[in-house]
Amino acid sequence: MALLSSEDIMIKSHLKSGTALLVSFSLIAPLPVFAQSADGVFPCIAPSGEEVADADQFAQSLIASGIAVLDEGTCSQHALDQALASGGDALAAALAAPTAAAPVEEAAPVEEAEVAVEPAVVEEPVVEPEPEVVAQEPTPEAVAEPVSAETAPEAAEILVPEAGEAGGDVVTDEERQAIAEANAAAQAAPSAAATAEGDAPAAEILTETITDDDVRTSDQDFETSIGAAAPAAASTGEGGLSNFEKALLLGLGAVVVGSVLNNGDQVVENTGDRVIVERDGELRVLKNDDQLLGRPGAQVATQTFNDGSTRSVVSYEDGSQIITIRSRDGSVLRRTLIRADDGSEVVLFDDTGKIEAVDFAKLPSLASLEAEQTAQDATLVAALQRALFVDVGRTFSLQQIRDYKRVRALAPQVEIEAVTFASGSAAIDPSQAEALADLGLMMRDIIEADPSAVFLIEGHTDAVGAASYNLALSDRRAETVALALTEYFAVPPQNLITQGYGEADLKVPVLTNERANRRAVVRNISRLLN
Q1: Which has fewest Cβ within 10 Å: 32, 190, 205, 472?
Q2: Helices (H) and strands (E) in the chain, counts
Q3: Rg for the chain (alpha carbons), in Å?
Q4: Average pLDDT of the segment spanning 92-107
């Protein structure tokens, strides 16, 4: 059996990538590993057969035995991640040696620097100063020794075989669709919020006024760190949970790390604002898609139905309203705008009806779409205003656009090269936000001309670090870009959809801290939807 796995689907970070890449990098250079909560992880039986009580003992066992595959013993992936963090260079050197029977002298720690990114959103632990740099993120528990490509020059040239685990489609779009259809067929009924009238009985009706304290701005970081332990209260449904976690608790069950939800998903990460789950061999991010809609002074009335699905009405001071229906896992199913001037309804997207399956045989190949993207990579205006590369004679659901790369690749993309992020951060400095002016003003103009226009903001990382960590981080950063566009350039938030893809869609197929892979992308998906 191979070294661990972990990765996502759409939200995607393929399971194979996370741990396998983690260990691969450990063999190349000392890397900060993103530790998981130790709750319930230890004690366990190491592959060597001995019982280990904590990460330090597990690391020493691995150093002594040189065995890092988990087809023997009872230690989990979380345990291995913690051991790799604890063992540091000594464990990396031991695993790299032909026969790892004893600890190897540790290399001198590398001083943390800051990394710059050419095309935008950054991730990854390593850093080396450059004009515009960004670094991938060490968690608070593992800030010790970030690595840069400079410390491991050979690593920079290591290509992923045939696009590799992180960059390749471990699960193809066709396979992903077949899994989704099978899962949908197994569901007892559609979300109650999608079938009920606005005055239908609900398990809970909550009305609140948004205040300044309720709204995160683009220059603020998240209160919770990725990799932190999930709140203990999540297992009991008691106080201390976010509204998002409470909704998931009702619809899917307890969201503590390691638990299995009612739909079979296993919780890999929980930061309060996002839950990373393993579903059908891939990672997926669950989050509240309405987070962008919060503005101070707005009134929010939310019906939470017995299955955990919700219907919310956000009423703004100018008289406009946004009505959103979400499924029990928080995914947005339908969003409409009620205009203040004439009370007319604008449907932005609607995934509540029957959705036609995608016939991928009728779509252009990904290679041809990427070639078209390169050929048409002209001006910002041209990329955002051009509807599609190819008109395939049909529209798609928002979920299909999010899930299937060949579908969203039909719409031209614009890479955001102006924004960089500090290591481990999802905040944007106001001075950097100003560099988004051309993009923001163009998007605002398009929406003014067509209120039903919808833009997808994607977050991507390189392949360094745990897949679940990269997925959560990329999704948070996509949200921050959307916040900045709204705050500084008045881009209507209801017209923005954010999605993190972590390391699942590498632009450059390498396993190193490649700056080109740390990026944010914007697509005008209006013609794909409507």
Answers
A1: 205
A2: 15, 17
A3: 23
A4: 44
Alpha-carbon distances of 363 from 116, 213, 372, 387, 399, rounded to whole Å: 36, 46, 14, 16, 17
Q: What are the φ/ψ torsions at residue 211 (nearest 5 degrees)?
A: -115, 175
162: left (phi over 0), alpha (psi -120 to 50) or beta: left
The pLDDT, as a whole number, for residue 291 is: 87
The 3-state DSSP class for residue 395 equals coil
Helix, strand or coil, per DSSP, at residue 466: coil
CA–CA separation, 232 vs 391, rounded Å?
50
Q: What is the mean pLDDT of the chain?
A: 74
Nearest-angstrom CA–CA distance, 117 and 529 = 31
- Say if residues 507 and 516 touch (Cβ distance below 8 Å): yes
Going by C-beta distance under 8 Å and a sequence separation of 6 or more, which residues neighbour residue 484?
A: 218, 419, 428, 433, 436, 440
Q: Are 85 and 33 in contact (CB under 8 A)?
A: yes
What does 286-297 look like in DSSP terms, one character per residue?
Answer: EE-GGGGG--TT
Residue with tokens 């590993």: 33
Q: CA-to-CA distance for 129 and 193, rounded, in angstroms?
A: 50
pLDDT of residue 31: 35
DSSP state of 401: H
Residue with tokens 């291995």: 80
The domains located in the chain, with CATH, are: 31-107 (no CATH), 165-171+355-529 (3.30.1330.60), 192-350 (no CATH)
Helix or strand (DSSP H, E) at 248: helix 243-251
pLDDT tens for 35-53 read 333 356 788 888 888 888 9
In Å, how far are 375, 396, 514 from 354, measured between CA atoms? 36, 11, 41
| Count of residues in the chain | 530
130 burial level (CB within 10 Å; 0-12, 13-18, 19+): middle
**Strand 496-500 and strand 455-460: pairing?**
parallel
- The angle subtended at Cα 196 by Cα 193 and Cα 202, nearest 5°, is 65
The CB-side HSE value for 2 (13 A sphere, CA atoms) comes to 14
> HSE of 115 in the Cβ direction (CA atoms, 13 Å)?
34
Three-class secondary structure of residue 323 per DSSP: strand
Residue 123 near residue 478, CB atoms below 8 Å: no
| Residues sharing a CB contact under 8 Å with residue 123, sequence separation 6 or more, in sequence order | 134, 135, 136, 137, 421, 461, 462, 464, 465, 470, 473, 474, 477, 518
258: left (phi over 0), alpha (psi -120 to 50) or beta: left
Using pLDDT thresholds of 50, 70 and 90, give the confidence band for residue 229. low
